[in-house]
Amino acid sequence: MTRRILVAAHNHPDLHPGGTEIFAHDLASGYREQGCEVLFLGATNAIHREAHPGTAFQTTGPDGDLLLWSGHFDRFFLSQIDHYGTLQDLGGLLEEFRPDVIHIHHLVLIGAEFLTLARRLLPSAKIVMTLHDYYPICHNDGLMARPTDKQRCSGASPASCRGCFPEISADRFLLRERFLKTHLAAVDQFVAPSRFLRQRYVDWGLRADRIDVIENARPPRLSMPHAVKGGKRASFGYFGNLNPWKGVLELLGAAKLLQLAGESEFELRIHGGAPFQSEAFVAAFDKALGEAGAAVTHCGPYQREELPELMAEIDWVVMPSIWWENAPLVIQEAFQHRRPIIASNIGGMAEMVRDEVDGLHARPSDPAQLARVMRRAMDEEGLWDRLVDGIRRQPTIAECARAHLSLFDKLKLAEAA
């Protein structure tokens, strides 16, 4: 039934290969494979591209993807403040392409006003928004964690949010919430990739019946064979960007503790760079890396097409994040290659990685306990084989696209009824 879809994200994977951008772009390809006409719109700014005079739009990629150059954006309100430029250009795009469905994956750089603009210009189009993180709820980059001591937050309120940002008054946080909920009311249906994230938005005030849970997915990959080993399964790998919230410092602390305890048979390979991180974090990472010992190698950034070869070198994937991750693509990629995972027992990670079934859980922010879990992973006979056998087949992009198309069609049928 659905044939014309506009997919919008807050960047393009060719410019910023984050999980949301990668998944949104892959899903757009999945829609095309199902016979839909699809336009992918990724927002960007001066960090990645210079503005072109006369229009907010640029093009990129072999599929003719569009880039929206958005240099005027209010990150506090997630607001597109360039009403007479960027919003006018977005309006022209909507009226020219006239999608049946607008599937938006993020509000950053695009702006919450885009939702109500689309509703006004295309009243019969269905607007679906995937909630990939907690940006509408939390001003701290959508982390739901305090910027000072990194303690995880269970909910937002004007008073508690002001505790994190004392320079911003409580009434501005109240205005932020009401502003965003007003624009989010234009969305016909939300999608959450995890039950955990769905519940966070229900607690925030979105209606439960307006949020469907559909798992993210990855393009199909041939599983990389496991190395034949006669001894321990003692090769660990970390994959992803390096930042203070991904738990990489705690992972290096665990590696240091293992070596201090005399463990010499393991290796830890850290794959990823630290783009846009502070000098303080980069210095802390370099210091922790130097103290972690010879068993640890920082392999640097990697390209997506290199991942299978990198997975072939390790036995375990470690995901030690200290914030409420929603649905990290690294977990599905590891499972595609039949690598069990050691993950923090919080958020969507605890939902995706089943403790003692296809991976092991560890407490976040606790290097000593993480070291004990890693030691058990190496030492317990038969554990690795049992967890590998417990890994489920992961959903494909084609299956994920069909699930979304079914949702879109259900919305159209409900309107017709």
Mind telling me the C-alpha Rg?
22 Å
What is the assigned CATH homologous superfamily of the largest domain?
Glycogen Phosphorylase B
Unreliable segments (pLDDT under 50, ≥5 consecutive)?
A: none
- Give the CA-CA distance, first to last residue: 15 Å
The CATH architecture of the largest domain can be named as: 3-Layer(aba) Sandwich
CATH class call of the largest domain: Alpha Beta
Number of helices: 14
* Broad structural category: alpha/beta
Strand order of the largest sheet: 3-4-2-1-7-8-9-10
Shape: globular
Write down the domain tally.
Answer: 2
Number of strands: 16
What is the helix fraction of residues, given as a range? Answer: 25-40%
- Element-level helix/strand string: EHEEEEEHEHEHHEHEEHEHEHEHEHEHHH
- Report the β-strand fraction as a percent range: 15-25%
* Largest sheet entry: 8 strands, mixed
Mean pLDDT: 94
CATH topology of the largest domain: Rossmann fold
